[in-house]
Structure formats: C-alpha cells, structure tokens
TrEMBL record:
PROSITE patterns to which the protein is assigned, alphabetical: PYR_CT
Record domain Pyruvate carboxyltransferase: where: 1-227
PANTHER family listed in its UniProt record: HOMOCITRATE SYNTHASE, ISOPROPYLMALATE_HOMOCITRATE_CITRAMALATE SYNTHASE FAMILY PROTEIN
Record's keyword annotation contains Protein transport: no
Originating species: marine sediment metagenome
One Gene Ontology molecular-function label: transferase activity
Record-given protein name: Pyruvate carboxyltransferase domain-containing protein
Keywords: Transferase
InterPro entries: Aldolase_TIM, LeuA/HCS_post-cat, PYR_CT
Keyword Cell cycle annotated: no
Length: 303
C-alpha cells in the first residue's frame, strides 16, 4: 500500500467520522488473516472490517495448493476476528468466498465459528455467479436456520442472474428472521461480467410484484440522482452504460412499436413500470434524456 493510498483512505474515513457521508458507513475489505488486520489497523483509522477467505473445496485446493486445509481456514479466520476485536474494530463481517460452491455442512460450521468469535454478519459470496435464485434462496435459508446471523449477499453476474440471485438471497435471510444486505455497484461494474447494479436492485425492490408491497425501502432511498451518478461513473471508469440498462440506459424509456408508442403516450403506465423523472431523467441536455419515441419500420400508423 502506497502512502498516497493510505492518505486517500484516511481522508475518506475522516469524512465518515464527521458524518459528512451519513448514513453511509465505510468498511474495509481485507483477507481474513491476522497479518492483514494488523496492517489495516496500523495504516488506517478504519472502524469497520470485512474479513474474507475462500471456503470452497475448489478454492482451498486450487488457490492454497496444500498450504491451507478446511480446518486451517477456520482457524486463521477466527484468529483474524479475535485480533480485529482486540484492535477495537466496531463491526466485523466474515466473508465466505465462493460460498455458493462450498459444502453446506462446512459453510454452516464456518459461519458458526465466526459468530462465536464475535462476527456480526456473514457475507455469502456467490463469487462465480454459480447460484440461481432458487438455489441461493434454499442455501441462505438453511444457513440462517442453523446460525441465526445477518447475511450480506455478494453476487456476480457470470450467468446473467445477479440481481435476481441477490434479491432471492436477501429474501431468504429476511424470511428466516434476520437482516439482509445486498452488495451493489454503480452500473453493475465489477469483475468479469460484473456485480449487482445499484439502480436495478432498488427498482426491483420498489416495483417487482413480489417485493413492492412486502419489503419497504427506507424513505431516504432517493433515485433522483441515479441518472447523473450513472453517467459520472461511466465517464470516470471509461465504461459505457449498456443501452438497455434498467432505468439509466439510453433505451430504457425508448418506444418504437406503434402499439407501444400509442399506449405510452395515452398513459405511460401502459408500457412503463416507473417514471423516468424518478431517476432524474428528462432535464434538457444535448439530447432527450427522458422518454424517447423513435420512428422505424415497426412504428406503423399509430407510431
């Protein structure tokens, strides 16, 4: 870690301590080994930590190459949790990397040991996007039934189901009686095929048939800056926003079919589940940012 990175991290942590970022809590994400805890607490003012270690048979064999066994993974994780507590870390999350490919009995044992040592939540990491909404629901519900600890979902999009798996995992945790947290990124940017998109997750909770009346979002969740934040992230990372990205993509409110155009103009609820203005779109720019009526071969007379 360079001194520039350390200064940057400490500046962010100081802003958090001053409540400038409220209600956001800044957390560190390090390996679940004592050496990383020692370094993180020595170099930064971090007060919240996530300790991550691989738990699947594939990763224990394929990454550690005989250096770690399943028993060693649990031992080094608990040592890291113990040290974090000694260093005054306020909240500790333990991450089971590749949880979706981890033997269920071992995953339960791992989570129980983490909780016994003082971890406040378990991160269920679908590191390769291996789970689907059905398997993650059953696995998370089974895990919570045995351990009774809040669950954080960290899912990937390798099979194109990341938002669905994240929501299904969160639903399982809530249905089993504990709090759930979903890791998201702006525009779904992340390793390989990406992570759960922040806006897509919020829209799904607010408007999908299975969530909108049962799971109520905090009133502080405000989508009015979603459009601008998505554009800023796209510019900052040099990664274009997919044109069909929910809510913020160029075509998210585009209509060409004559039947759709006619229906949307009569009442936007005919063909739009939510209003583009809710996401901060519609303000005049170089091009129209709200509803987009296009003329093409499918427009017909009504279009």
């Amino acid at each position: 870690v360079t001194h520039h990175e350390t200064n940057y991290l400490n500046a962010d942590l100081e802003l958090a301590k001053m409540a400038v970022l409220e209600p956001i809590i800044l957390e560190g994400w390090i390996r679940a080994i004592p050496e990383d805890v020692e370094k993180a607490t020595k170099l930064t003012k971090v007060e919240h930590l996530n300790l991550s270690i691989s738990t699947s048979e594939q990763m224990i064999r394929g990454k550690f190459k005989g250096k770690f066994s399943k028993e060693h993974v649990i031992r080094v994780m608990t040592e890291a949790v113990d040290l974090a507590k000694q260093k005054g870390i306020k909240t500790i999350g333990v991450n089971a990397e590749d949880a979706s490919r981890t033997d269920m009995d071992y995953l339960i044992k791992f989570a129980k040991k983490a909780k016994e040592r003082g971890a406040q939540r378990i991160h269920y990491c679908d590191t390769l996007g291996f789970d689907d909404p059905f398997t993650i629901y059953e696995r998370v519900k089974a895990l919570v039934a045995e351990v009774k600890i809040p669950i954080e979902l960290h899912c990937h999009n390798d099979l194109g189901m990341v938002v669905a798996t994240s929501l299904a995992g969160a639903k399982a945790a809530i249905d089993a009686g504990v709090d759930a947290y979903i890791n998201t990124t702006v525009n779904g940017i992340g390793e390989r095929a990406g992570n759960a998109d922040l806006v897509s997750v919020i829209l799904a909770i607010k408007y999908s048939s299975g969530f909108k009346d049962k799971y109520i979002l905090d009133e502080r969740v405000d989508l009015s800056k979603a459009w601008k934040i998505a554009k800023y992230a796209s510019y900052a990372f040099g990664i274009p926003i997919p044109i069909d990205q929910p809510g913020v993509g160029a075509n998210a409110f585009a209509h060409e079919s004559g039947i759709h155009v006619d229906g949307a103009l009569k009442d936007r609820r005919n063909y739009e589940l939510y209003d583009f203005k809710e996401l901060g779109r519609g303000e005049p720019e170089i091009i129209e940012t709200g509803r987009n009526i296009t003329v093409g071969e499918y427009s017909g007379i009504k279009g």
